[in-house]
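[job 0412] stage=fold_complex status=start
inputs:
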Amino acid sequence: MMALKVKRIEMGTVLDHLPPGTAPKIMRILDIDPTETTLLVAINVESSKMGRKDILKIEGKILSEEEANKVALVAPNATVNIVRDYSVAEKFQVKPPERVEGFLRCPNPNCITNDEREPVNTVFIRESREPLEYRCRYCERTVREDHIRELIRPS
Amino acid sequence: MSSFANRDVISVRDFTRRELEELLSNAEEMERVYERGGDDRLSGKILATLFFSPSTRTRLSFESAMHRLGGDVISLGGKEAASTAKGENLADTVRTVEHYCDVIVLRHPKEGAARLAAELTDVPVINAGDGANQHPTQTFLDLYTIMKEKGRIGGLRIGLLGDLKYGRTVHSLAYALALFGARIHLISPEELRMPSHILAELERIGAKVEEHRDLEEILPDLDVLYVTRIQREMFPDPEEFERVKGSYKVTRDLIEEHAQSDLAILHPLPRVDEIEPEVDELPQARYFDQVRNGVIVRMALLDLILGGE
Ligand SMILES: [Zn+2]
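[job 0412] stage=fold_complex status=done
writing structure:
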């Protein structure tokens, strides 16, 4: 088997243990513009822990814990490595954020946030962690973990 | 200072048991004000009712409550609201109207409309129904009616009968009853069961809940029976409505044979055919008192929000 050869980065963020195929969604969640950022994306690679996984290396950008936690919505087991001077300076597990603003759309067609004439962004508040559940601040509809991926807005 | 002072009233979920108790005890005081024919404690204050979907009863109840406390009322409703809704968005409407009044009562077909209005304005907003979501003052008046009838809420055995799937009022009411420690009996046909996410939420706040298919079986144990109607407009699928309409009915015989003599039968009104008219003459029928309580609770709410400044 050929080893996956991925260049080490000098400074940046490595997101590991992403469910296979989720890397593009995660780029959207983190609002990463691939025309301006150097990225190394590995999709559907072998993982001893998960069977298959994605890895996303973002060069030159250090994600804050708050930013990185947004990833937990689609990749609850993701680990984040902050790289400085070619070595891992910090490592943590993502936690689902308490409040999610803007990038999820509400699944309720009658929700005021789906009315294009109104100046309003979506806000979802975490309702429970196990199972992961969020509630729309406006219409109060709840969305479960398995549903959240479909609700991510294209950026 | 009251925890209600200048506060928005959007969802039952925003209130603690202690705050609801404060409202109920103020309603007891308002009962006496109402008996005296009102007073003028809110003189100089203006209430605006904005009804983008019709509910004459709710609007009149709020307007009556405001008048009883000496305040003034301005209204945007019916055709006016419909034409405003066509040209202007809700955000602009409320940002205009807030300069005309001290409190806004809003009813709107979109869920979340009241929360949005509250965020965009400085005057308090009271949600008088946002689509199929919340109608908190209905829940407040239901609580007050139970308190008045029974002297307490905690420990009572309260049956919620009917459309528990689409019935907005029972979702909020079940939540509030759980806060007070009532024992909740959910009675419905299989097709109209309480949605699982609401059951999960009730469980999360420690509610004592049982589900039943058969009213006759549980009726003898109940202190309160809260009946809801099946609303055609709430059903996304008309065929589903046809299948379940008329699937339960409270009859005189049923009450006389199975209910406790001091059972209180409540209903948010208007009713269709889920309570037989013959039930009205029974001592257990309390639903018309609920209407009066609605005015009193809204007086209490307006007094807490606008008074004491
Ligand atoms: Zn919503």
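[job 0412] summary: The longest strand of chain A covers residues 38-47.
[job 0412] exit 0
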